[in-house]
Amino acid sequence: MKTLVVWVSASLTAAIVVMATFLIATTSRGETDPFTSSIGPLTVQTIARDLDHPWSLAFLPDDRMLVTERPGRMRIVSAQGTLSPPLQGVPEVWARGQGGLLDVALDKDFAGNKTIYFCFAERDGSGGRTALARAALVDGDKPKLDQVKVIFRQDGPLSSGNHYGCRIAQAPDGKLFATLGEHFTYRDEAQNLANHLGKIIRLNPDGSVPTDNPFVGRSDAKPEIWSYGHRNEQGLAINPANGDLWEIEHGPRGGDEVNIIAKGKNYGWPVIGFGIDYNGAKIHESTSQPGMEQPIKYWVPSIAPSGMAFYTGKLFPKWDGSLFTGALAGQMLVRLSLDGDKVTGEERLLQTLHERIRDVRQGPDGALWLLTDSSQGRILRVTPAGK
Length: 387
Known about the structure:
By secondary structure, this protein is mainly β. Helix content is about 10%, strand content about 40%.
């Protein structure tokens, strides 16, 4: 009888271990306990894992993805999650603090010219600055970057490791927009047109300055500047409904913003805003002033939004036209419902995932694809349950 009890106990223990292993495995793939939303349950599937602080992804024409890792690696990832070795040809990055290899974007004519653009923190002496480069993607058994050329370097006081901005968007006419943070300790420089801190710039694809940029010809202003008065811009996208440029930036304690960016406009940082300093001190003179633009949406307290995508797919038809952004401090995916240029509602999704969401993209399959920000970062695919 004693032997029988031991056998039953051992068998039960083994069964529990097997069941626990199964539950952990299925939960890690996101295939159990669908997440709730306004349109019904959502399934979150882990496509790839063990990426070191993945920062940005861009879909290739064959549904594979280019993915950047902040320490300085770029990889091609299949739709099934197979990771390529790190691509050769990526320049050295300054992977300190928030810096490293950051955004990546395909040229609008990538199918023909194989051109990509990427943004990174570049070391200059004892500090860092934002740099924008272009390259040709050479695909095959050993994919690499070729003809790499830095087409822009940020000018101004250097960063000790914070607030690089570094998001890229390309307009239908081919012009490039890129966000440049104000390096955290130099907040007042966002109002100084003589440098690139706290600015959004506009370039031709080769890095030259378009002649119709707003400050071309002024001796007291950088000709690349398109808009100014920004803090740390972590989202940038062209609205497909009308071609307008939209931007999302971090506030300090409160005051994260969604802005519609117009030529030559001043977005107020640090003169106006809706947050306070990290120590509780007052930063802004007021929340508005003549000649400074108001956000169309702001968050108090901060959620630390990052990445953004306008949804136009068919997998979530009721969300057509919505704007999505990840949240780092908020650890969630946020959906903003829009009516033209107005935000009419906010839905907070995937909060029980407990992940810092660094980037969000609409995939060619109509799913929402996310990057989680950690040393064991994941690529997630979000779909309606059962799809």
